[in-house]
Amino acid sequence: MPGVVRRAGFRALGVVAVTLLLGFALHLSRPEAPVSPPEVPSLAAVPARGIDREWELSGARVGDDGTGFFTGEITVTNQAGRARTGLFRLTLSVGGRQVANLVGRTESAVAPGVTVVVELGLGGAFVPGPYAVEFHEAFA
């Protein structure tokens, strides 16, 4: 009789283990809640014009990237006589206090006279404007 009890105990333990494994597998196979796409940041135009090292800035837009940090874009034209790439910094100040340095670069060489839009990032924690803007190429 002890052998029968022992086998029944192992069988019960096996049934419990299989039930737990199947339950866990079913739990893992359930579809997750739908993931909503990240919000596209809304950018606002800031008064920005300038020329630095033959790159002409004709527009700038900045805003909150949706996670509390600055993001932005600038529109620049290569005024040099040759194709080249650019590395840019847009410094933003509010009330005379610097609040962000946004950095971006052209994806490829820009031909003379061609205008491109450059995405900016690495700006730090977002601070609402109005902004005073400084434009620099290649960290001049």
Low-confidence stretches: none
Helix content: 10-25%
Beta-strand percentage range: 35-45%
Shape: elongated
Distance between the termini: 91 Å
Mean pLDDT: 84
Radius of gyration: 29 Å
Note the main sheet: 5 strands, antiparallel
Give the assembly state of these chains: single chain
User: SSE order, as H and E?
Assistant: HEEEEEEEE
The number of helical elements comes to 1
Number of beta-strand segments: 8
Computed structural class: alpha+beta
Task: Give your account of this protein's structure.
By secondary structure, this protein is α+β, with helices and mostly antiparallel strands. 20% of the residues lie in helices and 39% in strands. The chain contains 1 helix and 8 strands, in the order αββββββββ. The strands form 2 sheets. Strands 1, 2, 3, 4 and 7 form a 5-stranded antiparallel β-sheet that branches. The chain has a 3-stranded antiparallel β-sheet with strand order 6-5-8, with no helix packed on it. It is elongated and about 90 Å long. The model has no long low-confidence stretch (mean pLDDT 84).
